[in-house]
Write a structure and sequence with these properties.
The complex is a heterodimer of chains A (116) and B (112). Chain A is mainly beta and 116 residues long. Helices cover 0% and strands 56% of the residues of chain A. Chain A has no helices and 12 strands. In chain A, strands 2, 5, 6, 10, 11 and 12 form a 6-stranded mixed β-sheet that branches. In chain A, strands 3-9-8-7 form a 4-stranded antiparallel β-sheet, with no helix packed on it. In chain A, a hairpin with a 2-residue loop joins strand 7 and strand 8 (64-69). Chain A starts with a strand and ends with a strand. Chain B has 112 residues and is mostly beta strands. Helix content of chain B is 0%, strand content 58%. Chain B has no helices and 11 strands. In chain B, strands 2, 4, 5, 6, 9, 10 and 11 form a 7-stranded mixed β-sheet that branches. In chain B, strands 1-3-8-7 form a 4-stranded antiparallel β-sheet, with no helix packed on it. In chain B, a hairpin with a 2-residue loop joins strand 7 (64-70) and strand 8 (73-78). The chains are: A mainly beta (116), B mainly beta (112). Chains A and B meet through strand 5, strand 6 and strand 11 of A and strand 5, strand 9 and strand 10 of B.
């Protein structure tokens, strides 16, 4: 079963628009970790944010902000005033304890295209 | 600061040939190391992880294997490649099992 769902496969926006990437996760654990990564066309995964399950505070970093809501099992990512350089595939991931230790389960990713 | 290297960057291999991909981490000791594969149009799949020298755990049965001959070196191998082994292979490291995983630049493998 998919533990991380990114329902938006592709999003296209015009530069300067705000865009929200959705992430819904599924876990029975009380201790878990959530992540967002960015994958530009070069392919390397770039770490954006890590949140543990006990910290529901929203976070803002420049034009990026994250909304963590345990009540809806969501960890959404908003880019304000999008720029062409934001074009990439964005992955949400969940880390929870399993027989393999803390495995990182990725969603299928959302491809964001920002056009001028 | 820590850096993670992977080579080669790209590789084209015929079906049935062997494979060896290398990953090394600098600037840290006793890292946890991971191999992921990203097939075309799909998400990332964890293949192997290692918490120490000689300690390898496999997540998915396949014709690939991994080894960790040194503390900061992680190798992905195959004796005979299949067409289905094509994909983008990413190595990652973390300080502990719950810490953030940081990824290398990846190796794009095409099996013909």
């Amino acid at each position: 079963a998919q533990k991380v769902t990114q329902a938006q496969t592709e999003i296209s926006v015009v530069e300067k628009e705000d865009v929200t990437l959705d992430c819904v996760y599924e876990t029975r654990d009380t201790t878990y970790y959530l992540f967002w990564y960015k994958q530009p066309p070069s392919g390397e995964l770039v770490f954006l944010i890590r949140r543990n399950s006990f910290d529901e505070q929203n976070e803002i970093s420049g034009r990026y902000s994250w909304n963590f809501q345990k009540s809806t099992s969501s960890f959404n990512f908003t880019i304000t005033a999008s720029q062409v350089v934001d074009s990439a595939v964005y992955f949400c991931a969940l880390s929870e304890y399993s027989n393999s230790g803390y495995a990182l389960n990725f969603g299928k990713g959302t491809s964001l295209l920002v056009t001028p | 600061s820590q850096t993670i290297h992977q080579w080669p960057a790209t590789l084209v291999q015929p079906v049935g040939s062997p494979l060896s991909l290398e990953c090394t981490v600098e600037g840290t000791s006793n890292p946890n190391l991971y191999w992921y594969r990203q097939a075309a149009g799909r998400g990332l799949q964890l293949l192997f992880y290692s918490v120490g020298i000689g300690q390898i755990s496999s997540e998915v049965p396949q014709n690939l294997s991994a080894s960790r001959p040194q503390d900061r070196q992680f190798i992905l191998s195959s004796k005979k490649l299949l067409l289905s082994d094509s994909g983008f292979y990413l190595c990652a490291w973390s300080r502990t099992v719950t810490d953030t995983q940081y990824f290398g630049p990846g190796t794009r493998l095409t099996v013909l």
